[in-house]
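To close the chapter, one final illustration. This time we ask the reader to focus less on the individual chains and more on the assembly as a whole: which components sit near each other, and how the overall shape emerges from the parts.
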Amino acid sequence: MNEEQTHRIFFPVKNYNLNATLTSGQVFGWHQQLEGWEGVIDSKWIRLQLTADGLQVETVTPMHEVKWLAHYLQVELDLEAVLSTFPPDEPMQAAVKACYGLRILRQNPWECLASFILSSSKQIVQIQQIVKLLSHRFGQPVAVPRGHEARYSFPSADRIARCSEKELRACKMGFRAPYLKATAQQLTDGTVNLSQLDRMGLEAARSVLLDLPGVGHKIADCVLLFAFGFSNAFPIDVWIRQALEELYFDGRTVTQGQLQEYTVNHFGPYAGYAQQYLFHYRRTIKHL
DNA sequence: AACCAGGACACAA
DNA sequence: TTGTGTCATGGT
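The assembled structure is written out below.
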């Protein structure tokens, strides 16, 4: 009905499981409408729709170059090559079968970092609510199709740094408010620069993130994996811990050190990808 | 109505 | 290094 209002781009791509990708808990700003998945990437409203032979993308303003979009969506990734590195054990293959086509996006570092600082000890639906509240109150309105409900970009680190703790707590984030504000301040005043991390080694990049308030091993690995492309970063949360103990340790409880050593050795160069398949498989199917 | 959520942190042993 | 209590808030 609103076809003339949007500009369309088509990415021919096989094996793209859009639903699994957007609902697997790696990103929190997408919502499913009748016409497709809608979200905001870098201040631009986007609608995504899966077709038989690729990904249909709608934007409000015409796109002269779409490399940034292909990069975000990771449409050029050779997914088969990634999946072929997974260990051939039964649970891993079951996860691949159930979530086939799931991809790890390449998100904006600050938005990803902030989202996962807010994620600690929160359910995914609540994280989505907090992100939406934050965007509505402190983000910028973005251009949307005529008659469409208003949408807002994720607020900049600078804007968050200028929020009071009270304003942040009003967005339902509770004790995470001082963490988010302090990290935003460090990024704003130049104490830490995220733009260099993708040129560093995994351990060096991780240590930079670990110095930020509210960032521990789990959140650091999420940001390394979801925003910086460290495909071997392996976030260990309560779900993955339970899954690994059950599937690979015969139900025994193991220490964090044992778990970390096992994951880096067992899941290979794309361990983070394997982790996301196991995580989503566990949360959606959850039989066993 | 309890229980727990894609944890981090300070502190103890 | 590993274990415990605490921190808000609301979904299931």
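Chain A is about 45% helix and 10% strand. The longest strand of chain A covers residues 44-51. With these observations in hand, you are ready for the problems at the end of the chapter.
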